[in-house]
Amino acid sequence: MKIILAGFNLDYETIREVQAAHPEAEHFTPETISAAYARISRNPAPVNELRAAARGEVEKARRSNQSIVFDMGHSSIAEHAVFNIDVLGVSRLLVEEIEKFRLCSYTEKSQRYVLLQDDFVVPREIRDAGLAETFTRTVKAQNAFYHRLYEGLLPWVLDENRELAAVPANRAMLEGWAKEDARYVLCLATEAQLGMTLNTRNLELMLRRLAAHPLDEAKEYSRQLYGATKGIAPSLVRYTAATEFDCATRDDLRAIAGSILGRAGQPRAAGPVEEVRLAWATPDADTLVAAALLHAASRLPLDECRRAAAALSAEDRAGLFKASFRCMKAWDTPLREFENADLQFDLAVSASCFAQLKRHRMATLVSQDYDPALDVTVPPSIAAIGMEKPFREMAARSEETYEAIRRAVPAAAPYILTNAHRKRVLMKMNARELYHIARLRADRHAQWDIRRLTERMLALGREAMPLTLMMAGGKDRFAEIYRNAFPPA
């Protein structure tokens, strides 16, 4: 065996300094890695020699990439070329669109840990509609109220957690708890920044999809992202223009949905909202997962394993599941067989909650637009300090501005809504992914909004598949869950 380091991320400024010192060098591009790996399938030479050849003939490597990726259709070659991108000065609303691309990696500036100032985006659509002044006044009022909330929440948090507050090292954490609840009044136009890592196959898809987005901010993001990357790997990124499919499909669906649903598809009057509903689960999921466990541990076809699983006594079936869990620790994921059971949830979540939920990109997330008719999520701490009434008044003011913008430029109206405003989300995942979400989000260290949501999802999921989800829960409860399943002798 021989393991050779082929390359690693370098800060682009470092690359530019080396290029300046060695202007004759042409190989400062990830295209040579893609070209070398593409040749593995048909060239008997060792891959490290293929890389050396590609570095020595960059233009030839580029022609090879273009032929393999675009003529032959082997797009996976483009996945070997990777970019790290700084994204600054974008709105929280646009971040939701950027992070829809599930095979990329993101680290975002957190409103839970950073005390925000008066930084926000004024969309071009709102300026062109003559509503910039109204929009800006509302955002500044939201931001002023955010600081007022933080000043009221911090002493309450310190008083509620006196033992923690007595230790100076805990101060930053407690301040973060106050910030994370104060942020519910901030709007989706608030500026964000993130670090993003993606390969060129996903880069091309992102460029094309966001070029087709109705918001000007998304189109500008696509233009700037292309400008920053086009000279680095031109052989791997070609189709960046908006397509008819990306531009028209959502509008066509809205039109036909409107004709089918009529008034039933319109926003409803404010009232109690069911935040978590299990819309569907795999029928007889425990039997199906048990059959998958038998299948992987035998040489029998699935039909025979399903018949055997269905015939198991309750004790034997539980024993089969426990055998898969016996050696599990809090950091272990269940076996892949657990991906054979699915759950679909109909959720109504705040923007703050969705900001965390969207990070679980291996689940299938389909979301509606933000809808003021779904009311707002009010953090319990804000009610506890007597600020719920002014909080709701600020939400109502935000909705007035939303309506003014919606009448002029509907697509830009959500910018003014707050992190407390809600939207409906259809979320489908397999049982193994729900384990992962629960470990992170049902843990006592998780933010309260998504923790509450996840605990409700788990409760409903366990009703549908009790054995499959018997070990699911937050990291902090794993020891207790394990003791219940495997009591000491």
Annotation keywords:
51% helix, 21 helices, alpha+beta
Write the layout of secondary structure elements.
Elements: H1 12-21, H2 31-39, H3 47-56, H4 58-71, E1 82-91, H5 92-98, E2 105-108, H6 124-128, H7 132-160, H8 162-165, H9 171-182, E3 191-199, H10 200-211, H11 216-229, H12 244-261, E4 276-281, H13 285-296, H14 302-311, H15 314-325, E5 342-350, H16 351-357, E6 364-367, H17 380-384, H18 388-408, E7 422-430, H19 431-441, H20 448-464, H21 478-485
Antiparallel strand pairs: 1-3, 2-3, 4-5, 5-7, 6-7
Report on the architecture of this protein.
This protein is α+β, with helices and mostly antiparallel strands and 489 residues long. Among the domains are: 69 residues, no CATH class; 199 residues, 2-Layer Sandwich (Gyrase A, domain 2). Helices cover 51% and strands 10% of the residues. The protein has a four-stranded antiparallel β-sheet with strand order 4-5-7-6. A three-stranded antiparallel β-sheet has the order 1-3-2. Helix 13 crosses helix 15 and helix 19 runs antiparallel to helix 20. The longest helix has 29 residues. The two termini are 46 Å apart. 37% of the residues are buried. The model has no long low-confidence stretch (mean pLDDT 90).
CATH domain class of the domain at 85-247 and 378-413: Alpha Beta
Binned, the helix content reads 40-55%
Total helical elements:
21
Average pLDDT score? 90
Strand content: 5-15%
Please give the order of strands in the largest beta sheet: 4-5-7-6
What is the distance, rounded to the nearest whole angstrom, between the alpha carbons of the first and last residues? 46 Å
Large-scale geometry = globular
